[in-house]
Amino acid sequence: MRRDDLVCAYCAGRVSEGRCPACRATRDQYGYGRNGLNATWWMLLAVVAALIAAVALDVRFA
């Protein structure tokens, strides 16, 4: 189950839509933020860090 599939118990809407105050609080708690891209930014940062580490190791052992 993904976070996008969570259903609110109060308004029966998807939590990612943020229809009621409970949805918005849960959405913020799970890292959606205002636009839902918080996880994407962290994954992008991790990929960039991994690429930098790979290049550094290649330069060191080449």
SSE series: HH
Give the oligomeric state of the chains in this entry, treating copies of one chain as homo and distinct chains as hetero: single chain
How many strands appear in the DSSP assignment? 0
Mean pLDDT: 80
The largest sheet, given as strand count, sense and whether it forms a barrel, is: none
What is the terminal-to-terminal distance? 44 Å
Q: Report the β-strand fraction as a percent range.
A: under 5%
Q: What fraction, in percent, of the residue positions are helical? A: 40-55%
From the alpha carbons, calculate the radius of gyration and give it in angstroms: 18 Å
Keywords:
mainly alpha, 2 helices, 62 residues
Task: Describe this protein's structure.
The protein is mostly helical and 62 residues long. The chain is built from 2 helices and no strands. The longest helix is centred in the last third of the chain and has 24 residues.
